[in-house]
Basal-body rod modification protein FlgD (Paracoccus gahaiensis), 217 residues
Amino acid sequence: MVDAIASPSLPTAPTGPGTGFSAAGTGADFQTFLTMLTAQLKNQDPLNPMQGTDFAIQLATFAGVEQQALSNRFLEQMAGQAGGSGIAAWIGKEARTTAPVWFGEAPLTLDIAPHEQADSVQLVTRDAGGREVAREEIGPGKGQIDWRGLDPKGAKLPDGLYGFTLESRRGDELLADTRVGAYARIVEAEFGNGGRLVFEGGSSAPASEVTALRDPA
């Protein structure tokens, strides 16, 4: 018969807000190890009991592997925070994006860049579902314009998300159909996988697709 032994004191993983770990994660692995070790001790051959050195080796091996896993997780967490700290500073600014943007009472700033050989340029507006709601001739000029969100009858379009494309033509020939960048206010920055920005109104885009930033007008 094997006498009961006190469970060894093992390091446990940090848990709680801000640690990136939970009691169901690394700490649970330690508990599983203790359960398995206790069962091994209870069921070992009394004529050939496990030596103290074997016990110490098992304990040290597991503790070492677990400590390495903890170190790797902390490094990943730190890397994510460092990589995301840049885009976190963008919150509150306006970003130029080709994702659908929120239109309310204030005009939107659009960046217009038609094909250089175009003699006719039409701005096409689509709602969040991709349905065309407006089309207007704006001429071949290049630069920023204020879009006031008027339908073909001159009435203001409902508040909501809108996306824009530019159709550049020369005569009857379509030279280019390009997406138009619009400025939208950033309300959230999501870290990981290069970062993602969430705009006012709920639309979002990868940080890598933002082509310009500015302070709110």
Notes: The chain has a mean pLDDT of 79. The chain has two domains: 26-88, 94-214. The helical segments are 26-42, 52-88. Residues 40 and 50 are 9 Å apart (CA to CA).
